[in-house]
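The protein record filed here:
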Amino acid sequence: MAHLFTYEIPARLVARARPGMRVLCSSGRGAWWAFVMASAPGEPPRRSNHCSMCWTTKPALTDELLDFLRDLSAYYLAPIER
């Protein structure tokens, strides 16, 4: 089943990695581009993967588009990422 993933954002990217930003994420199986959907302060999960860079300085997805995608996902009971 598809779901959102949790990644640790390094201190050097915290100010830039806000919702809508495109970030490079990695795990043991490789790296891929993803979008930040939300952020939460505090300690990351014990076995979290990392984001290593932001693609641009401005979010690729606007707040309005993210809200629409969340509403669409809830309405159709379908995950955002697939």
User: Anything to note?
Assistant: The beta strands are 7-8, 22-27, 30-35, 49-54. Residues 6 and 45 are 8 Å apart (CA to CA). The radius of gyration is 13 Å. Residues 7-76 form one domain.
